[in-house]
Structures are given as C-alpha cells and as structure tokens.
Amino acid sequence: MLDPQLFERNMLAVASRQGPLCADRIRFAESDSRVGVMDSRDGFPVTYIDEGGHKAFMHSKVDPVREAGRLAREYTKPGFYVFLGLGAGYTVAAVIESGVVARGLIIEYDASILRSVLERIDLTHVLGDRRLKLLVDPDDEELDFAIATSYVPAVTGDFVSVPLRGRTDSAQVRYQRAADSIRNTIGVISDDYSVQSFFGKRWFSNIIRNIELSARPTPPVGPIREAMVTAAGPSLELYFDEIASRPKGTFLIATDTSLRALLERHIVPDAVISIDCQHISYYHFSLGLPENTPLFIDLASPPTVARLAAKPYFFSSGHPLSRFIASRFRAFPELDTSGGNVTHAAVSLAEYLGAATVRLYGADFSYPYGKSYARGTYIYPYFDIRQGRLKPAESLFAEFLYRNMNLDREEDNDGSFRYVTKPLVAYRQRLERLSSTIACRLERIRGNGVRTAISVQPGGLRKVTGRVFAAGRPFQKPEDFLRSYAAEIDALPEPFRHAAAYLDGLGAHEKDVWTTMLPSAAAFRREAGDTPPAPYELLSRTRSWCASVVHEELRRTGGLQDPGRL
C-alpha cells in the first residue's frame, strides 16, 4: 500500500536540498506500475522492476544492507563520487557513511521509476544529505554543468564512479551515454587542473602585479578586414617573402614566439600577442618590440613582458581572477585562450577585431623533419649561448625534441615526415573546433605541418561586425581595488575540516572570492607531492599566500594603509 505522507517527506528532502527543478520532474511524473517492493530474506525492503518474464531487482534479495556494506568497503579513496543509479539507496548510504565522499552526484534516469520508489521507500537520509546532488533525467548539458560546478580536484579529491548494476543494467543505453559524457567532462577538468597545478600561483601573482599597469589608458585598435597570423613552426620560413609583401590593409598579428623571426627579416607586424605566464617568454622580445606596435597581453602574463610595451593592451582570459577583475576593476576585452597556445588566442583576436578572413602561417602542430621552431625564434640564440665542445647546438635541439616521452612519427607518400606529441595534437583539435564556431574564414597555410580539418561555416560566412579593441575606463583606482580585494580575502571564514562543505556553505560573493584563488590551491597541492595536506589545510594555506601577494603589491605601490594579516 502506498503511503502519501512518505512520498511527501521524500519530496520535502528533495526540494530543500536538490532544488525545485529536480522536485518538479519527480512530482509531475506518472508512477511506473512495474515498480514493486518485496522484503529480503533478512526483512529489508528491496525494489524491483517487473519486466514481464522476470523481476529485475535493484539490490540483493538476501541482505541488501550487507551487500551495500561489502561494496562500500571497495571504495577507500576520499573524493568526488558519482552514483549511477539510486535504487532504494542502500549503496549510496553505505558509501556516504564510510566518510569518503567529499561531494557527490546521484544520477537517476526515468522520473517515473524514481517516483514509484519514493512512494514506497524512505530515502530522506540520502536525499537530504548536504554532500549529495540528485540529477533526474539530465541531458548532457545539465550533467556537464553539474560536474563542472561541483568537482574541484584540489578540494574534493579523486573522481570515483559507483554504478548500481540493478539500475544501470535496466537502462544501459542512457547510463552508458552518461558515463561517456562524464568521462569527457572529467578529462577536460583534469587537463585544466593539471595546468593549474603548474601555473596557478604564477597566474595569481602576475595578475595582481599587472593591476597598476593595466589601469593606463590605451587608444582603440581596429576594426580590421583581413588578417595574417604568424605562428613559430618551421614552415614559417617558407613564407617570409609572402608575408613581407602582404597587401596593404592586411593586419599582421605575430605570436610572441614568431616575433623574433619576423624582426630578423625586417618584417614589422601590426600587433603582437602573448599569453604565456612564464618568464621565458621574455626571450621572444630579445630584439625589442617595435615602437608603436601594440602588444596584446593576457592579464596573467609576466609584468616584465607587459612593461616592454609603451601601451600594453591587456585582455581577460578564462582565469577566474581575470573575470573578477573585469567585473570589479576594469572591463577588459575577453579573448578565447582555451586552446592552450598563443596561436589559438591570435586567431581569436583577429576575429574579435572583425577580420573576414584570417590566413595562418607556421602553425605546424608538429616537428617537421624533426625541427622544432622556425629559424630566428628564441630557441636558436638560447641554445647558441649554451652550446659547448661536448654539447653542440645540434645535441641541444635533439634533447629538446626527444624530451617528449610520447613522440610519434608521421610520414607522407612524398617522403616527408614529422613528429607529433599529445599536446600538439590537442592544440590542433582545439583550433579545428574554433574554426567551426568563429565568424571569419580561417585559412591555414599548411607548409610541412600536419593536415588539419579546418571548417568553414556551411552556407557561407556569417556577417562579421568589426569591433575595436579597447578596455573601459577603470571603475576605481588600482590601489582601491587591491585594498578591497585584500579585505575580502581577510574576511573569509576560516576553513574547517570538511572543506567541500565549507565552500558549499559560503555566501555567493564569498564563493566568488574563493574561486579566484582555487587555481593557486591546485599548485600548492602539486607542490606537496605524495603527502598533501588535508583539503581544509590546503585552503587555509592558499588563502594566506594569496592575501600576502595582494598586501605585498599594495606595499610596493604605496597603497597599503592597514597592514592587515600578512
């Protein structure tokens, strides 16, 4: 016999913890008449689906509690747990009780089946748990968003998937699609986290140290009609004459890695773009930056590079601190740097400025004939001063190439060959995806590089509306922003033992402030090696370090009035 009050208690837990969308999907679903409940041998209620010829049980018919406990003992890593299927909640409850779940998602397909379960089984202890989020019949976009906004590797730990076979077997196609979508999303997050772990602290300190310089006024640039972009691959050498004799009105954007090779041949670009946060990018400017040539530079770039230009043109990328600054300090233009390399960003800049056609040179995405960069780029003088009798330049170039553990050789029928690596393949794939979304026509001049599947929008190009590149006027003085940001960091509540719960319990603005610091937390986590601190200690350490960076910048610029906490 169904118990309406039981269903309402379950729905109250859903509505209070999981949100109205999830509750509405369950409440407006019709009960599935195939769902039933029977007692196990040891007297526990077990749900099943009557599939005509047989009953598909979601848990053990003997002792579902013992079965769930046995399964839970297999999961020992603290982390972010995704439960594929809820059933009567035994497995989820057992894993939760073991204390390994920092945050988790429960994915349940078919709201009708779930409603039938909630009409028969008390699941308030699971549905009301603050660590869990329930997704009912999510599409791919909802699933990706839920994971992207919940899974923070530095805080929530490893990713773990827990399938409930009694449910996944009854809806194999849908759960398999969910598993594939999750795998792709986790892959993207993991790649991003890996980059954060190496550069998170450097990004933060660079951005803070660029605040003062980024407040200066800059005249607008653009719009443009046609653009050339030069990357630094060896094939660039084949086209110097063509680039030098470009038609009047063609806007030449040089990546920072290609700048030196152009200047050696007296080719002066109309603009240079740089996104690398590492100080080695300074070597790209060893021949200087031509006077009046705009330098478009990521806010997270080294201040030593930014100061090379009389008027650097800062832009905001995907870093959360950059976005925070754009909303609170100055509305910088935003460019797509998701490709992970400066060539991708240069194409994004050309589109931003309104180019109808972009011709791309030197983007080899490989090492043609084993050669790494075009002659004249930074690596040649860099190795020239480091070579010796026992280690000539050729040896240094070979070491540079073969440092890659996964180096694949690709050959063409004409005898040409090249080496490719996993990062270079990823860069190529991201540019291919970008080409299918931008409003301009991208023409890659291949040279000796890999083949690419550059796309052009079907039915012709969309109308391109040129924009000028110009930041808005600052909302406040740099020192005022830094003082305000430092005060907001200092005012954050002290992290406690359950770090994920700590973050979940913050107010919206406090979460925004913490989001600006989480890439730095990833870096601290990597530096700790095999003995990382507890997540709450990691957050506390990150917060103290970020506050010290902001206070130090205030001292340097003379804007520190209250020393605060250092």
What does this structure look like?
The structure is a single chain. By secondary structure, this protein is an alpha/beta fold. It has three domains: 4-191, no CATH class; 216-444, sialyltransferase cstii, chain A (Alpha-Beta Complex), CATH 3.90.1480; 474-557, no CATH class. Helix content is 43%, strand content 14%. The protein is built from 23 helices and 17 strands. It has helices at residues 4-18, 20-27, 64-72, 90-97, 111-118, 124-127, 140-150, 153-156, 165-168, 172-214, 240-244, 256-264, 303-306, 320-328, 342-352, 379-384, 393-402, 422-435, 478-490, 499-504, 508-515, 518-527, 535-557, and strands at residues 35-39, 45-50, 55-57, 79-84, 101-108, 132-136, 158-163, 226-230, 250-255, 271-274, 295-298, 313-315, 357-361, 367-368, 408-411, 417-420, 441-444. Strands 12-11-10-9-8-13-17 form a seven-stranded parallel beta sheet, with helices on both faces. Strands 6-5-4-7 form a four-stranded parallel beta sheet, with helices on both faces. It has a three-stranded antiparallel beta sheet with strand order 1-2-3, with helices on one face. A hairpin with a 5-residue loop joins strand 15 and strand 16. Helix 10 packs across helix 22 (518-527) and helix 10 (172-214) packs parallel to helix 23. The chain starts with a helix and ends in a 9-residue tail after the last helix.
